[in-house]
Structures are given as C-alpha cells and as structure tokens.
Specification:
Elements lengths: L7 E2 L13 H13 L12 E2 L5 E3 L1 H10 L6 H13 L9 E8 L4 E8 L6 E6 L12 H12 L18 E3 L4
Parallel strand pairs: 1-3, 6-7
Antiparallel strand pairs: 2-3, 4-5, 5-6
C-alpha cells in the first residue's frame, strides 16, 4: 500500500437534522466516494494528517460533497439493505428464516426467497426498494422489526400476493412495510 495515494474521511454520524445516519447510509457514502473522488483531493495542503501522514478530509467536506450528489443511493444499496434486514431477524424459537436468494422484479421491487423450519417449501417476500417518491431505500427497518412477529404469529397470511412463482410455494406482498 502506498500511503501517498491514501485518503481518509472524517465521516459524520448525524445528518443535518441531527438524526443518526444508518449504517447502510455510511456504506453508501463510502461507495459513492469511491465512484466520485472528493473535490478537495487535489488541494491537500492545510488538511489535518493522521499518524501515518494520510490527509484526513473533515466531515464538513464529506457532508458538502454528499449534498451535491443527491443520488447517493442506488438499487444495489436497497437490495443489500433488504437482504440484511432478513439476516437480522432474531431466532423466534422454531421459526428461523434462511434467505435462499432473490429476484429483482423491477426497479421498485425485489422478491426475497426464504425458508424456515416450519415451511416445507420456500416462499417469496416481495419488498419495496424505493420509497413513494422513487428514492432508493437505505433500509427496511419497519419490516425488519415486524417480521419476527409476522412469522411467529402466522400473520404473513394477511399479506397475500396474487402473483405466482415457480420458485416458491406462496408469495407475500410486504411492499407496504
């Protein structure tokens, strides 16, 4: 590794409104910065340097950069957040979920194929990848919080989908979560 080509960022943990930036948002920011080098990269004089001499971009510079690039999230971030929400589902006794795969239905929805101890065949969970304004979602925290109860109390049946899928026994529409 050549330290002379390295760059460090002081990453803000709060957004402009003072709310925590979710972990997925921080990952998205790093992905975005890799795609678009920071504007101050060429002018490193005057920047604070860490113990190895690597210039550290202040958090204000990162925030300004992200504000000028509003399309920081993309569908891959949304799909990652949806899959991560399933992996975070706690053990609910006999009801364990296992993510088998996914199908990107369109730019708004994905179908996550899951199975568990109580299911004989996999079933599909349709999840939204964008909010009502078309902005890719950084997380589906409402679904992640509700899913253990939906499964343990057999509440998925109240979210049926009319769609059929040869890869699963039943499809549930969770795009409203």
């Amino acid at each position: 590794m050549r330290l002379t080509t390295s760059q460090a960022y002081d990453v803000p943990l709060l957004d402009r409104a003072g709310h925590d930036i979710p972990a997925a948002g921080l990952v998205t920011a790093v992905r975005h910065l890799v795609r678009h080098p920071a504007p101050d990269r060429q002018n490193e004089t005057g920047l604070v340097r860490d113990a190895f001499g690597i210039p550290v971009m202040p958090s204000g510079t990162l925030r300004q950069f992200l504000d000028t690039h509003p399309a920081a999230l993309d569908i891959t971030d949304s799909l990652h957040a949806a899959a991560t929400a399933l992996t975070a589902v706690p053990d609910t006794g006999e009801q364990k979920l296992l993510l088998l795969g996914f199908l990107l239905l369109d730019s708004w929805r994905a179908r996550l194929y899951v199975t568990g101890n109580a299911q004989e065949a996999p079933y599909g969970l349709d999840v939204a990848l964008r909010d009502e304004d078309g902005v890719p979602r950084a997380g589906i925290t409402g679904l992640a919080a509700a899913l253990p109860g939906l499964i343990a109390e057999d509440q998925l049946r109240y979210n049926p989908s009319d769609e059929t899928d040869p890869y699963c026994s039943q499809v549930f529409d969770l795009t409203h979560w």
